[in-house]
Amino acid sequence: MTMKPHMLIPTLLIASHTLLLSAQSPELEISKNGHYLSRKDGTIVFLNGDTGWNLALMLSRNDAEHYIKVRKDQDFNLLGISAIHGNDPINYYGD
């Protein structure tokens, strides 16, 4: 399956926001007891997540950017977004 150029935009958008957020965050590691994510200083990281499973299909690029910005402003630090959407998905642009 070949990815069409307009489907690549949401993927790159999500990846760029992920890299931006992770670049601003301290390095994470598995806690010594193996039960948590923690920072290098040992403080436990709380993941506050939201799911936008069909974000890449259902929203325009501008709407996706707005959704991600709003979630960031609401202190979400994790987004669950589906990368695979069935057999022949039709996206926001009708492709």
Report on this structure.
With 95 residues, the protein is an alpha+beta fold. The protein is built from 3 helices and 4 strands, in the order αβββααβ. It has helices spanning 5-24, 55-58, 61-73; strands spanning 28-30, 37-39, 49-51, 78-80. Strands 1-2 form a two-stranded antiparallel sheet. A two-stranded parallel sheet has the order 3-4. Helix 1 runs parallel beside helix 3 (61-73). The longest helix has 20 residues, at 5-24.
Index terms:
39% helix; 95 residues; two-stranded antiparallel sheet; 4 strands; 13% strand; alpha+beta; 3 helices; two-stranded parallel ribbon
Helix amount, in percent? 25-40%
Number of helices: 3
Q: Which of globular, elongated, flat, extended, rod-shaped describes the shape?
A: elongated
Within the largest sheet, what's the order of strands? Answer: 1-2
Structural class call reads: alpha+beta
What is the averaged pLDDT score? 74
Number of strands: 4
Provide the gyration radius in Å: 16 Å
Element layout with pairings:
Elements: H1 5-24, E1 28-30, E2 37-39, E3 49-51, H2 55-58, H3 61-73, E4 78-80
Parallel strand pairs: 3-4
Antiparallel strand pairs: 1-2
